[in-house]
Amino acid sequence: MNIRTLLVLLVLGIIALFAVVNWSSFMAPTTLSLLVYTIQAPLGLIMLGFTGLLTALFLLFIAYLQASSLIDSRRYARELQTQKELADQAEASRINALHRSLEAEVAKLAKQGEESRIAVETRLDQLDLDLRSAVEQSGNILAAYIGEFEDRLERRQTGTDSKIGA
Fold first, then answer.
1. Among 45, 110, 130, 158, which one has the highest count of C-beta atoms within 10 angstroms of its own C-beta?
2. Can you tell me whether residue 47 is helix, strand or coil?
3. CA neighbours within 13 Å on the CB side: how many for 2?
4. Neighbours of 16 (CB within 10 A)
């Protein structure tokens, strides 16, 4: 129980105790004016009845407030759940879009990598051919120089031999 409920019960208890202690005064008849009529009735009993009626009305009002508050909180909870689901769907949509974008970028990078690899292999093959050609050409030139050198040596040796024999 909260403090407000205890306070209301305390006030109602005090009113009930006051009515019990002063019951004879509550029941004493008095002349009451109803603007059109005048009647003899116990004023204390009528006021006690009005207090009871007012208390019942306040209890009904409190029950109405509690019910409307409960209905509103449930409605807000449903709306919040709906908004959460929408946000989750939007998040999933953004994640899927990002995933597709990343896949496209990875595919593009893979294609570029493959193209670069092919270009490098082509260039290396061309350089290999060029290097082999250069080595072969150098070998041919060297063979030509060696052949020329051998010819000179042979001519010198044959020329020296012919000079020795002459």
1. 45
2. helix
3. 1
4. 13
Distance from C-alpha of 90 to C-alpha of 96, rounded to nearest angstrom: 10
How many CA atoms within 13 Å lie on the side-chain side of 31?
3
Kindly tell me if the per-residue pLDDT of 165 is higher than 60: no
Beta-sheet strands, E only, within the chain = 29-33, 38-42
What six digits make up the tokens of 82?
């709906």
What is the token pair recorded at 1?
Answer: 């129980």
Domain spans, the chain: 1-33+40-54
Indicate the pTM of the whole model: 0.50
pLDDT tens sequence across 64-115: 999 999 999 999 999 999 999 999 999 999 999 999 999 999 999 999 999 9
Q: Is 140 helix (H, G, I), strand (E, B) or coil?
A: helix
